[in-house]
Amino acid sequence: MPEPGGGGSRLFGGAEPLAAELRLALEVQRKWQPPVDLRLGACRVTARSRQAAEVGGDLFDAVVLDDTVVAVLVGDVPGKGLQAAFMVPALLLLFRSELKRGASPAGLLERMNRVLAGLRAESLAAVGVTLGIGLLDVEAGEMRYAGAGHPAPYLAMPGARPRQLDSSSLPLGMSPEESYRETVFRLAPGERFVLYTDGVIEDAGPDGEMYGFDRLEAELADWPDDVPAADWMERLLDGQESREASRRDDRTLLVVEYAAGKAGRRAELRERSWRVPSAPGCERSIAAELAAMLREDWSDSGRTDDIVTCVAEAVMNAAEHGNGFDERKAVAVQVHFGHSIMVCRIRDEGDGFDLPAKLADSRPDDDNEYGRGWGLRLIDELTDYWIAARDEHGFCVEMYFLSHHRKS
Amino acid sequence: MMDSMLELNIVPFDAGLSVTLKGDLDQQAEQKIRSVLNWEDGIGEGRRYLILNLHEVNFINSSGMALLIRIARAGRKRGYHTFICGASAHYQKLFRMVGLTEYVMLYPDDYAALQRIEALESGV
Fold first, then answer.
1. Staple A41 to which of A138, A180, A316, B109, CB 3.0 to 4.6 Å?
2. Are A201 and A210 in contact (CB under 8 A)?
3. Does residue A40 sit in the same domain as residue A169?
4. C-alpha dihedral over A282, A284, A288, A293, to 10 degrees?
5. Does one domain contain both A102 and A184?
6. How far is B124 from chain A, CA to nearest CA, in Å?
7. Cβ contact B47:B82 at 8 Å
8. Residue A284 to residue B27, Cβ atoms within 8 A
9. Which residues in chain B have Cβ-Cβ distances shorter than 8 Å to A284?
10. Do A116 and A70 share a structural domain?
11. Per-residue pLDDT, A15
12. So what's the ipTM on this one?
């Protein structure tokens, strides 16, 4: 992993401290803010975020719960630079850990609010953290939404005027006793649920005029049925950037598309899975088939070699270190990909590993130990984001790759 | 255990050996290479250069890279220089990531590596 700031005493001279701090902040955010492009049944969640010149505090996340529910989050924390950069992962961790305890979006906000208010931080007491949380039951198409001081989301149907949900309340962290109201509604096939941060609305042109709600609503109404969310969001964000203004705030959009009954939309997404006994060399056949599939279906991404290398390393680690080359135990590989992102999950039946210890141990001087930990080093360098976690099904390494042709 | 998918072809030249590898370079490759080239004992009297041609290697994993480094590090002890040629841009990138380029010189093909050796031999 490259050292933020380049290391050494240069960090402490002239303008370098600020540059080093910003590089560190960007690295922190990059590591903790996973790309979002996931599918569950008829639901697809896509997010795009563009940072202002300073490191800002937009955050977003999407998590699949128990195979039928998707949780989405968009938020905005106060401040810039390191303060925001470290607040974002802390909030994402809090969100994911509270999600595991269950409850509704309003209940999640209330628990997160009590934690944040309990910190008694001056910056939070003054401005607070705005968050919007939605939980979609994919089978029923039922969405439960609650917001904490966050701009009201939209429901949009192609060719129709978008509808804004009412969700006024205080941001998190300002008052420990705040309660949050929940809105429950059913998404119609083809309907889109759109979350965003205030940076999108308040984006100012060269004349100082804000982008505003009217322009966003016009874009939502004109969004054709056959244009994927990723393309729509990138075009909107590109359009704002073409206005040649200096940006002071991050801009984030997250779209939940509900496509029940729309077969065409499902065809955009593909998936493939493998299951192999844990034998030495078991990664070879997967690597070969994955390479062939990527050359056929994701050829313009520029990521084929990176993906094949990382999946092969993860499978090798899973078979050797996770399952101890016990051929009765399987390594399961699953890849999902849309037109701009690929997610690869490699699962074994072991207990997992201590990542910092593994990476620290990656360059021992003993010749016979050469190569230990290099698989993780390569995964860390070549993926856009990765995470390793244990759940009830075993130990899983999840890796995200953005297509270079569409990387924002 | 799956058998190694690696084949080797060794061609001696005046000052060294040129080894062309074909197939996969992974943890199973070590035994195959060792069966024809015991690099830890050197590569032969008077031989100071080892060229590893990877042009026909389709797949290299971290174990394969570790093997290449061990061969190159042994060369430093045994008095031979290691050259790698024919690696794709992707694998060249990985070699830099894991530090292999601290021990070997990368060249596009055999010809370029041999030209460099010729220059070294003539003291240029």
1. A138
2. yes
3. yes
4. 40
5. yes
6. 32
7. no
8. no
9. 2, 5, 24, 26, 59
10. yes
11. 42
12. 0.86
